[in-house]
Amino acid sequence: MNTSDARSLLARLLHRIAPEIDLVTVDDDALLRDDFDLDSMDFLNLVTALHDETGIEVPERDYPQLATVGGFSAYVASASASHSR
Amino acid sequence: MGEFRLPSLGADMEVGTIIEWRVRPGDRVHRGDIVAFVDTEKSDIEVEVFEDGIIEALLIEPGIQVPVGTVLARIAPAGEAGRSAAPAAPPVATPAPTKRRTKRPTPKLLTPKRPAPNRPTPERPATIRAGDGFVRASPLARRRAAAAGVDLTDARGSGPSGAVLATDVEQMTTRPSEARRSTTPAAPERASVVDRQGAMRHAIGALMARSKREIPHYYLATTIDLGPSMDWLAGTNVARPPAARLLPAALLLKATAIASQRVPAMNGMFRDRFEPASGVHLGVAIALRGGGLIAPAIHDADRLPLDELMAALRDLVQRARAGALRSSEMADPTITVTNLGDQGVDEVFGVIYPPQVSLVGFGKIAHRPWAVDGLLGVRPLVRATLAADHRASDGHDGARFLAAIDALLQQPEAL
Predict the structure, then answer these.
(1) Helices B248-262 and A40-54, interaxial angle, to 10°?
(2) A48, B242: Cβ pair inside 8 Å?
(3) Residue that terminates a domain, selected from B81, B99, B117
(4) Do B57 and B154 share a domain, yes or no?
């Protein structure tokens, strides 16, 4: 999965949590929590959905790396590369 | 002969509309079974039955708005076994005369995700939706629509509150183009599009105004060191997949629930006088996407193991946002917690939900300088606040209560 695939995946997962979000129109540095009004429960649900779909298990200490749209995409792309090895 | 009445699903509820019956005459029901899906000003609620028996007759058609206390169905006792399990029916409130209204104060809802105009726009079909693609319609209309392959979201309802009736479906099947083009000439009351945002704002406003008018609030605040709790949480979650992880909120709720049980003056209802509750049914204030607030209860939260409390919280938030709460969750919280920490504020001084007598607030968990054993360190701190009813307790009780929450959070492994 490259970062573009990861961004599409994020859009799909986010749609279930917050259907009003349109990722097409947002920058990579948009903050998931602040700009999309995700609370800690939403974020946990996002990480859970990511795990269910891809098997990527994000430890809590890595949460800060997933704070932005770009950060999330880069993390997932890189994790999927090491995951599939 | 049992009468199944529209229960009061929170002190702010005056009327409700059955969206759909989930039972039919002749069905056997047990206490706690969901029998109807009801639209209130704040949410769509799955209403549970309070006794065992057999549904004898459904008296109210879907789509008709009725006041709290209206008999919705008759239930015949299911033999000798059914009778004994029946007594714990919740109080059924009849609206006070002054609050009785023949009409809804605000027009009713459309789908919450799409802010609706307050009046039906003439060029669009006046369709009542109570959620994602849900259309208020009579069961017969649903069956006819399904049989004819007609999409109910395209139907213009001519029934009460805009409910789609079988005749509307027939019109669509015979004259589809006309039905779609048809405007709502002089029937705004019959086919009113519902603005749930407005209705919810009204309901919240009315309840909070009553709270501020009637309840002599007092407020306390304290700072709690969450170091032990956050360390314990990190250590616990590191070995868990995301689906099994705990949020700090689970610890805060559990500590509050146990403290409520220890300081009974915080937990209960005020009706003429304070009535302490026997169980702790912890209301959780949940912000809805697109605006609004709902505070359903987690039952017996003080007795739930942390994992179960976390699962209950997850489930409750999801159902609150999907509009699928149950009547028992709405009717009986004994104390409520609001957690605005995620929005970044340090503290929240809440307004008590009548007839409850206290509201606990938690702000954000932030790392700040803090002295422990004479040494300055950086610790995760949270501001805990209490708004409490002076008719039920004094500041002394409130202080004991907050101190109990603090003490419990210092030993998270025991929660």
Answers:
(1) 130
(2) yes
(3) B99
(4) no
Same domain, B178 and B220: no
Q: Of B237, B290, B317, which is closest to A41 when you measure between CB atoms?
A: B317
Domain encompassing residue B155:
107-207
Judge: B241–A47 Cβ closer than 8 Å, yes or no: no
Name the residue with tokens 């609004």.
Answer: B292
Q: What is the number of CB-based contacts under 8 A between chain A and chain B?
A: 43
CA-nearest residue of chain B to A51?
Answer: B242
pTM of the model: 0.72
A60/B249 CB distance under 8 A: no
Among A33, A40, A60, beta carbon nearest to B238: A60
CB nearest to B242's CB, from A33, A37, A47? A47
Of B83, B99, B115, the residue that ends a domain is: B99
Letter string b/e over residues B284-314, b meaning 16 or more CB atoms within 10 A of that residue's CB:
bbbbbebebbbbbbbbbbbebebeebbbbbb
Q: What is the pLDDT along chain B (415 residues), one digit of tens a residue?
A: 688 888 887 777 888 888 889 999 989 999 888 888 888 877 788 888 888 899 988 888 888 888 888 899 999 987 644 444 444 444 444 434 333 333 333 333 333 333 333 433 333 333 333 333 456 665 556 556 666 666 666 666 665 556 666 666 666 665 444 333 334 333 333 333 357 778 888 888 889 999 999 999 999 999 999 999 999 999 999 999 999 999 999 999 999 999 999 999 999 999 999 999 999 999 999 988 777 888 999 999 999 999 999 999 999 998 888 878 888 888 889 999 998 878 789 999 999 999 999 999 999 999 999 998 899 999 999 999 999 999 999 999 999 999 999 999 999 999 9
Residues of B in contact with A40 (CB under 8 A): 247-249, 342
Residues B319 and B256 in one domain: yes
B114, B247, B310: which to substitute to probe chain A, counting the most A Cβ within 10 Å? B247
ipTM summary value: 0.91
Same domain, B144 and B222: no
Please check whether residues B129 and B272 belong to one and the same domain. no
CA-only gyration radius of chain A, Å? 12
- Chain B residues with beta carbon closer than 8 angstroms to that of A35: none
CB proximity A47 to B under 8 Å = yes
- In chain A the domains, ranked by start, together with CATH numbers, are 3-84 (1.10.1200.10)
**Mutation target among A17, A22, A33, A41 for the B interface, most CBs of B within 10 A:** A41
